[in-house]
Design goal:
Elements: H1 2-14, H2 19-28, H3 33-56, H4 62-65, H5 69-81, H6 86-93, H7 105-138, E1 141-142, H8 143-149, H9 154-166, E2 170-174, E3 181-185
Antiparallel strand pairs: 1-3, 2-3
Helix pairs in contact: 3-5
Length: 188
Amino acid sequence: LKRVYDVCVCIKYGLEINDGKIQDLISLYQIDFHDFLTLHRKRRCQNEYDDMVQQLGYHPTTTVMQKTSSWRALWARISRLWGGDINNFRREFGIPIPKPGSPTFKEDTQKGREQQLRKLRDQKKERFKNILELIEEHELISIRELLKNLDISKGMIGRHMKELRDTEQVDWLLDDDGKTYMYFLMEN
């Protein structure tokens, strides 16, 4: 069957024969088309996997394969074609089966999340402190002035100003032209 597959591929691409003629040849030689397609799909999976390994420089775990949609689709096709288990694919081609993850994986990721949240909270506190200092310094200040003085996006400043207004640390009013919101500190 593998040899028939190779011959069909050579005929199709080498002689530029269309799919209808290939179908006629398959019928003439009474080739089981289902097996032919399965072999073709397996060969395609193997080629895509080899390309992925070439790109990564190592044999990926299924977790790594989940990172991009094309790799995820390949993982699903491999699992389907090799009986629901990618390890069957690995065994067939002599690919080492990765060891299971660290037994402390959940705890490690939880620690990492907590550290990231602490870092984000500290950054937010620092931005709030800088915003409040600028408002105190200028008494009345616009978003445009805040953008000039701080390295924060307009959307982020807007969210921070809303939170500062909601916590009643800052309030705003329209300028004399009625076009620009001016922020000021609220009396405690």
